[in-house]
Amino acid sequence: MKTSTRFKKKLLASLITASVAAVAAGTPNISVAASADANLRGHAAASAVITAKQISTGAVRRTKASTDGSYALVGLPPGTYQVDAGPGTERTVTLSVASTATLDLTAAPATAGAPSVTNATNLNGVTVSATDLREVKTSEVGTTVSLHQINTTPQASRNFLEFADVVPGMVFTRSADGTTSLRAGAQASSAINVYIDGVGQKNYVLSGGITGQNASQGNPFPQLAVGEYKVITSNYKAEYDQISSAAVTAETKSGTNEFHGDVLSSFTDTAMRAETPAEQAADKKTSSHEKDYGFDLGGPIVKDLAHFFIAYEGKEFNSPTTVVPAGDASYISQLPASVQSLLGPASLPFKENDWFGKIDFEPTDRDRFEISGKYRDESSISGIGGDTAATAALNTKNFDKRFDIRWDHSTDSWFNRLQATYENAFYTPTPLYTGDGSAYVEQENQNQTILFTGNSPTAQQNKGQKGPALQDDLTFNDFEWHGDHVIKMGVKYKAVKLTAQDAGDSNALYNYAVTQNNGTESIPYQVQFGSPTPGLSPIAKSSDKQFGTYIQDDWAVNDKLTLNLGIRWDYEKTPSYLDYVTPANVIAAFNSQDPNAPAGQTYAQTLAKGGVNVNDYISTGSNRSAPKNEFQPRLGFSYDLNGDEAHVIFGGIGRSYDRDLYESLQVEQTKSVLSQPTLNFNTPDKPCVVGQNSCYAWNPAYYNIATLQGLVAGTTAGKEVDLITNNLKAPYSDQISIGMRNKVGDWNTSAAIASVRSYDGLVFTLGNRYPNGAFWENGSQPWGNGIPGFGSLIIGNNGLETKTTQVLLSAEKPYTKESGWGATFAYTYTHALQNNDNIDPTDQYAFDYETIGNYPYTGSGVSKHRLVATGTIDGPWGFVFGSKLTLSTPIPDLNLACYGATPTNQDGNGFNGGGCRSVSIAPPSTGRFLIGGKFFGYRDIDLQATKNFTFGGGIGGYVRLDLINVFNWDNYTQYIETFGTNGVLNRVPVIYNPIGEITGYPRTLKLSVGINF
């Protein structure tokens, strides 16, 4: 070690002690960014100076080897470098995103373990042969998606996350309405996080995982600006925060010492695609088109000193979708003819603009400054498809602005990053049509809506987040004790204002009962509408404060064993939840006479008989506190069997906390200010006692919203009360994995078993109880026995859980210029369970059983088997060909099955007290592939062919054809349910709806052209 080692040890010990003390004291958290940087470590001559020069930008980094020859270069932008430790040791290597690679720089020739994959890369007009250094000594379960894969794999959209499903365990989905999502295992998409240049894009308000991706057809980031990215499905290191599922960390492109740019345009329309199943059934093809266009430009401001990069991508879609009713098939035929005419094909227009810009400045070989910004805005007509007709469409605006400035400073023994960020993202859907809307509901199961033909008051929303963050990350790369250590720690503070408007007062939704044999009632049995409280804002706001801390030690014990030891701590204050005061009139209602109970019994006593203690939910403004116990150990190892990186065993165990979405936390406040009263009407099929429990005799005047609002003006009649537990916890997951990586010739393979258990998801259940405390009487729930003078009581508690075990197999032959081809294979076996029957994992409402604890564990909406394979090959005459195959078994239908079983008036044995039960039933497979019988529920083969041209003067171009879903396989997503009768479940209770919605695309031809220079 150097002469300053003793001082550095003392300094490091002091910093570690200080960070632990800061956690104990509850000070702002240390949370290092989930960096996209590359790290390089290895051995050289004792005390040698190691120099790494990035070829494209001229940026230089230096460090000094210790007395035993060990060295580490940290915080390097991914790319191709010339690295040396003196004469005779020169190497040219390529470092990938978010990786730690090993490079031996001794004067002797590279050992057998040195990576041997070479690739020819064109940098600044010069072809450079570089060794790709791949990270294999890591406990993380994940894969890197290279820029070559992004450029050559067939693609239907320009959403860069589409390529993540080449990673075992990941699923990228395009729904029939064009919206996209990315998820891992059984957890919802909201559990993931995406880090752009180390900055998390987390959505704190809405589902979707990252800002802008809730119910959006758009792209989270310009694909032209993405260099490459890494997907980690489990056992990430301690630097990753606000996540309980997969992490995606992407590196953006930067300007270089030469001017380079691209211009692109792609197009497809009605004539270039096949009909959807619904269009075939209707004998009518909906007009559609998709356009993508954009450019990027980068180059030097001052050569070797400062560079710029800018990218823009635009989208214009008019996507086909299908309106298909939900629920048991026996009810659908009973819908009125005018309603059935709304079924079938429809379209969804969409437009997006997506910008990104970056400037970097390196005044010395020790300092680097970066400033970058992103701007995204989109508008669309959305919400159509599935059980929602075009008359219930939404006019949606969605924008996302982010800015980032950072300073990197390095020395021989440490690296520091100081970073400041700002974000502003909002999602604002409003009903396209205002006034009366209708919903058609199964008479036997009022939790099952067959079709929406209009909007409820909750359709009008305004939800978003904005605010700054400041973080500092410190890495020591020169510490020795029984091996070599790279120790990272950091601190982050974030102040973000959360906003949520949950409803408006321009729409009323009328519910009509549909019977199995007697058609649809002509008058509604129920209505929900917005009722504002004069003088109070319907918008909830919270000045959220987020803290976190972590320390991570990547400990190379010897040339075979590496330990990844980390722990992080997170803390969050959400004032609108913590400081909320339950309204006095609600408390008074709890303590008033239950009108349906014997004299002297209050409603609170009724609830207590049913196991609900109102004091667990009544907030005084000072009896709630934010959890301070979110400690998350992240422990892992890798063992290189022969010390040559050819055969590496790896594993890990850890915990990771996510966040409760503000969309859920704000309901206490917004429901009481802009309540959505639910009034009942006495009808033959849905009788109620007029004058009790918000029941009225029907009057056609009630089709007027103002008349309805007049019924409850100055009262609380029919107003739902939402309360959340005072002991709210953050959702988290526990992860454990074991696996092995092998290098077999030119192929890199991996096999792993991973188990992820998620806990404490927030869920809302019905709090109402009958006077004797029961939740079930005569097979019915106490919907009519709400809080006296109010409507129903909805209570929020922690309790949603998932259990996922996966076998993850992958094989990759990396593309090289010398071989001219590359291929990947990713297979996932999934066994997943969840304790609710919502097929949408973002749905946090569970009304089918008394409590979430009464729900049985059923299979999740995840395919049991999934295979994704890709290939690329260089053809003659400047052609490049690519292919992608995706196969998976059917996704189970999750629902509450009611088929005439005798009600027991209590939950048990999988059944609820009404004689229905939660089920997870996979429909019969519909598809074959090559050989064998029908096994698959999803099949897709995509092809692309690109012809590259050279025009001279450094200008090139290309023409590309993508053929998506070559064989036009129908990948259905909707089900026809005929569960059974007389308590007997049918032998085949669920099948795919052959004229329903599909996921992905029908066969589609897409033409792209581009110019590059």
Percent of residues in helices:
under 10%
- CATH class category of the domain at 141-252: Mainly Beta
CATH architectural group of the domain at 141-252:
Beta Complex
* Helix/strand structural class: mainly beta
- Spans of at least 5 consecutive residues whose pLDDT stays below 50 are 1-33, 109-118
Largest sheet: 22 strands, antiparallel, barrel
Helical segment count: 11
Average pLDDT across residues?
Answer: 91
Question: Strand percentage, roughly?
Answer: over 45%
Describe the structure.
- With 1013 residues, the chain is mainly beta.
- Among the domains are: 31-133, Sandwich (Immunoglobulin-like), CATH 2.60.40.1120; 141-252, TonB-dependent receptor, plug domain (Ferric Hydroxamate Uptake Protein, Chain A, domain 1), CATH 2.170.130.10.
- Helices cover 8% and strands 48% of the residues.
- The chain contains eleven helices and 56 strands.
- A hairpin with a 3-residue loop joins strand 18 and strand 19 (306-323).
- The two termini are 48 Å apart.
- The model is unreliable at 1-33 and 109-118 (pLDDT under 50).
Could you give a quick summary of the protein structure above?
The chain is mostly beta strands. Helix content is 8%, strand content 48%.
